[in-house]
Amino acid sequence: MIKGVNRQVVEVAETGSDYFERALFFVNPKYYGLTDGKLREKAQTLMSVAGAPPKSKQKTKKSKMKTALEIIVSAAAGSLITLISSMVF
After folding, report:
1. CA nearest 15: which of 51, 41, 42, 39?
2. Theoretical Cys-Cys bridge with 8: which of 15, 27, 68, 84, CB 3.0 to 4.6 Å?
3. Under a CB-based contact definition with an 8 Å cutoff, are residues 68 and 59 in contact?
4. C-alpha–C-alpha distance, residues 66 and 22, integer Å
5. Do 45 and 64 belong to one domain?
6. Using the 8-state DSSP alphabet, how is residue 12 labeled?
7. Residues 39-48: tens digit of each pLDDT
8. Are residues 28 and 10 in the same domain?
9. Which residues, at least 6 apart from 3, have a Cβ–Cβ distance to it below 8 Å?
10. Whole-angstrom Cα distance, residue 28 to residue 20?
């Protein structure tokens, strides 16, 4: 356990994540009396539910291309509608 000025910190070195190699948890002062083992257990539990960001939040090259294609198709459709409406009226 690392003790700082008026703070207790639990460091988790094995996060189980490809994204993060270490995590620091600042202990709430009302739980300073808990044992080191109990604090580490709570930190590990929190790490296990944190996991990786959801896939919907990760931008991939494929999703960027899809978005670009949708913009191009929408612009082309708008231009076509404008052209047709100007020919009719």
Report:
1. 51
2. 27
3. no
4. 35
5. no
6. E
7. 888 888 887 7
8. yes
9. 9
10. 23
User: Are residues 45 and 77 part of one domain?
Assistant: no
Look at residue 74 in the predicted model and tell me its pLDDT.
Answer: 93
What CA–CA distance (Å, rounded) separates 81 from 87? 10
For residue 6, give its domain range. 2-50
Mark whether 79 and 45 lie in a shared domain.
no
CA dihedral 9, 13, 16, 18 (to 10 degrees): 110
Alpha-carbon span 2 to 79, nearest angstrom:
64
In this structure, are 68 and 35 located in the same domain? no
Does the model's pTM come out above 0.85?
no
